[in-house]
Amino acid sequence: MPDAAPKKPSRIQKRNRHLILDAALDVFSAHGYRGATLDQIAEAAGLSKPNILYYFGGKEDIHVTLLNQLMETWLDPLIEMNGEGDPMTELLGYVQRKLDMSRELPRESRLFAGEILQGAPRMNPHLVADLKPLFDEKCAVIQGWMDAGKLASIDPRHLLFSIWSTTQHYADFEAQIVVLLSGEAPYDTASDMLDRMFRNLLRPEPA
Fold first, then answer.
1. Are residues 179 and 118 part of one domain?
2. How does pLDDT run across 175-193, given as a tens digit for each residue?
3. Does 160 map to a domain?
4. 42 pLDDT exceeds 50?
């Protein structure tokens, strides 16, 4: 007799998993992995701790689930960089997509930063298997643009690091930015400044 098909989760089960993951994202992004507890996640989700453990094996299981979901989203802006497009347009578009991600997904950005600051104990396999090949591929594309004289000649690796640091800063250091800008919304002015900064950096010198 063939094995029965796995039972699909009910609407309530899907809702509860979503509640748990959303609450855990709040807790992990605020307290980091080490500072977060299942009790905090349960309280934020409005569920009991035994209910949390019905859906997940523990704090690490929840954290890994969030990281796995995040990695799929995290790579998308770099994947979208088109090697057949105009180099300046493609790179400045990438800067804007990364800035938009900080605006729209600040908790996810802080979750990622917290994991990296701990040495990436749970995300390292993704960095090796997913990010590194994509990073190498796009660096080769950028280097090709530079070799063709379409962009100023700089190290593509450090260019990408600079894009990451300047865009993700607005999510990871949001509390400081709010104080320093006296509550002013930063993203419109940040977009203009980053566009000008990277455009000037990347503009090739006249022949």
1. yes
2. 999 999 998 889 989 999 9
3. yes
4. yes
The pTM of this model reads: 0.88
Give the Cβ contact number of residue 164 at 10 Å: 13
Rounded to 10 degrees, the C-alpha dihedral 201/101/160/119 comes to: 140
Number of domains in the chain: 2
Q: What is the domain range of residue 80?
A: 75-202
**13: confidence class by pLDDT, cuts 50, 70, 90:** confident
Residue 87 is assigned to a structural domain of this protein: yes
| Per-residue pLDDT at 1 exceeds 50 | no
Q: Are residues 37 and 139 in the same domain?
A: no
3-state helix, strand, coil in the chain (%, to 5): 75, 0, 25
* Nearest Cα residue to 103 out of 56, 166, 170: 170
Q: Is the pLDDT of residue 3 over 90?
A: no
CATH of the domain at 178: 1.10.357.10
CB contact set of 3 (below 8 Å; sequence gap of 6+): none
Q: How far apart are CA 79 and CA 172, in angstroms?
A: 22
User: Does any domain span residue 69?
Assistant: no
